[in-house]
Write a structure and sequence with these properties.
By secondary structure, this protein is α/β, with parallel strands linked by helices. The chain has one domain: L-arginine/glycine Amidinotransferase, Chain A (5-stranded Propeller). The chain has nine helices and 17 strands. Helices cover 20% and strands 19% of the residues. α8 links the parallel β15 and β16. It is globular and about 45 Å long. Bound molecules: delta-amino valeric acid (DAV). The site of delta-amino valeric acid has 11 residues, from loops.
Amino acid sequence: MSPSEPLSADRPAPAAASPVSTFTEWDPLEEIIVGVVEDALIPPWETITPAVVHDRAQWPFFKAEGGRRWPAEMLRKAEADVEAFVHILEAEGVTVRRPERFAWDQPIAAPGWSLPSSCYALMPRDVLLVIGDQIIEAPMGWRSRHFEHHAYKSLCKEYFRGGARWISAPRPELSDASYKPDFVAMEKGEPQRTILTEHEPLFDAADAIKCGRDLFIAQSSCCNSFGIEWLRRHLAPDFRVHEVEVHDTHPMHIDATFSPLAPGKLLVHPERCAKVPDLFEKAGWDVLVCPEPDMPLTHPMYNCSRWISMNVVMLDEERVIVSRGEERLIAAFKKWGFTPIECPFYDFETIGGGFHCASVDIRRRGTLQSYL
Ligand code: DAV
């Protein structure tokens, strides 16, 4: 360092606006990360799997095939969907970034546990909670996803250098103490329960959803109340964190349950959203109940349910990217005043999630406001 160069503590904060800035699901989208299908593995069987895989008939598949590559034909079709999504985003002027490749097939371990592999960089929404000008690496409850953040490190460093804030929530131990022993998923009608203990803070970024000053989050198979409390204190006083009550036998992430899509418009699952927080009614919001998905019941789905239809991405407060074939939802969006943009996505949904899962917003043109 030359004598004239100031110590880093004396350097002025970057003058440029942060490359990371997002407060809502609907401010005009400028930059987004979209996951990659390449190298994706079937998630290895682990303690949390029975709590998140809806269909018991698939458990033997995960036990036998977990850690291997998905069949090439499935990956090829999923990749075609994701590229169609990227094409739409780019055609609308959105900058699309992609995670880097990572050796998902390497065995992983920490004190007390080990697994034959990680999973993939298919679903950035789960890994990074981007809010305001900060990126928070989520303390994920899945052992197999403990190192997934690595695929996003180059991007995070670049955004940090550009002026963003970047932090990791306390890295979880994920020892047996984090999971209830002998957990059995609840049946419909039983009181809500999840597999996680309160041993340490846990959440996936997709367990939370933004709505200006208010952030909504629900407990799930990968989010406990300790995690919610960590986020509440971390984000105060700029953001208010509200827990949403859900009723879901295999709860995972809020973005196919409860989604504030535009000012005054909240999309909810007809059954999973046990109670819409009073705030919305007081503020005069419309509660839009998602219609039954059109995806054929015979369509193969490994990691999520047909309600992934709800898992949309807003380009702005009118234009919504929605899965081709979801005719009832497309008609409903038109009736509710949105402009649907259809994109084929069923084959990506087979191995992963929807548009919202497959991406994470980095920058939307907007300011911090209260909508409730
Ligand atoms: O319906 O399986 C998946 C949500 C993924 N982010 C479902 C919920």
